[in-house]
Structure to design on (302 residues):
């Protein structure tokens, strides 16, 4: 379910890291004469978050003009309390989304405009007493769904890998997926063991394969499985690349605001009657999600 507090706070923290990287990108050029000192200033205003198709976080449909969309936005490094709107509708402050000192989290519902887009804007009074604003314009991502497996309740025989494929979403620049697998088992020496593996990654592909040893752990030492549980979620994204790239917030500040459509989830369990354990097949793993930010953060452009 997209609305989980953990998922929302995790994504906001990642976007916050991206915005933090934007603040450290400077300009290069020939040295010249120094000008007069400017007024004292602080960090640039920042806005980050996402717009999601539907009125609640489990809603999975493409949007057309006038359809509902939800927005979760965080604004930081501004004096006072900014007014944040999505297509002119004022978003309410949501305390649980306020995760950075000096910033505020906002949440609300609006409708798309005539060309199926949304403008998110934060207005505030600057330190110099003048009106300021930061804004981002987003085109909504199209509908998409998980195709393989063809059911959201997936049973996997012991030792098998898992391949997930989904349809392409119009206007998506990449896909963000999360997964976890937990496995309680008895090893060949009779000891109880526990295996846990999770990921949060991006890809431009519409297929991902999880090798057997990511799901079950060290297959060679498993005698019998007591319990296995897993979950998979996928989202289509545009607006700015989660894997690193330019921010898309303009005006009197900087930031990253995404448009996201939820493609669905899988509830994963061990199939009844354990199958024969087989050696895991090779599969090129997608780079670690957090590592993508570490690799690209200094290359972010305003």
């Amino acid at each position: 379910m997209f609305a989980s507090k953990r998922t929302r706070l995790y994504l906001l923290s990642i976007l916050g890291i991206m915005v933090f990287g934007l603040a450290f990108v400077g300009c290069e050029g020939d040295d010249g004469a120094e000008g007069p000192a400017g007024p004292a200033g602080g960090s640039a205003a920042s806005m980050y978050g996402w717009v999601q198709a539907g009125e609640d976080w489990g809603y999975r449909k493409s949007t057309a003009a006038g359809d509902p969309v939800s927005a979760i936005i965080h604004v930081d490094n501004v004096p006072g309390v900014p007014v944040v709107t999505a297509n002119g509708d004022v978003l309410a402050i949501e305390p649980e989304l306020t995760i950075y000192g000096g910033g505020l989290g906002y949440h609300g519902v609006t409708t798309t405009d005539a060309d199926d887009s949304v403008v998110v804007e934060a207005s505030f009074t600057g330190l110099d007493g003048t009106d300021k604003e930061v804004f981002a314009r987003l085109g909504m991502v199209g509908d998409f769904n998980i195709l393989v497996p063809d059911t959201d309740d997936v049973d996997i025989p012991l030792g098998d890998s898992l391949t997930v494929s989904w349809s392409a979403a119009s206007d998506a620049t990449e896909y963000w997926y999360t997964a976890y697998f937990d496995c309680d088992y008895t090893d060949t020496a009779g000891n109880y063991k526990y295996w846990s593996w999770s990921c949060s990654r991006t890809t431009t592909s519409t297929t991902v394969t999880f090798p057997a040893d990511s799901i079950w752990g060290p297959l060679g030492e498993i005698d019998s499985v007591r319990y296995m549980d897993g979950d998979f979620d996928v989202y289509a994204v545009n607006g700015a690349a989660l894997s690193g790239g330019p921010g898309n917030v303009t005006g009197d500040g900087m930031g990253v605001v995404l448009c996201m459509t939820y493609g669905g989830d899988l509830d994963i369990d061990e199939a009844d009657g354990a199958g024969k354990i087989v050696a895991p097949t090779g599969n090129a793993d997608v780079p670690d999600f957090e590592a993508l930010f570490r690799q690209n953060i200094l290359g972010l452009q305003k």
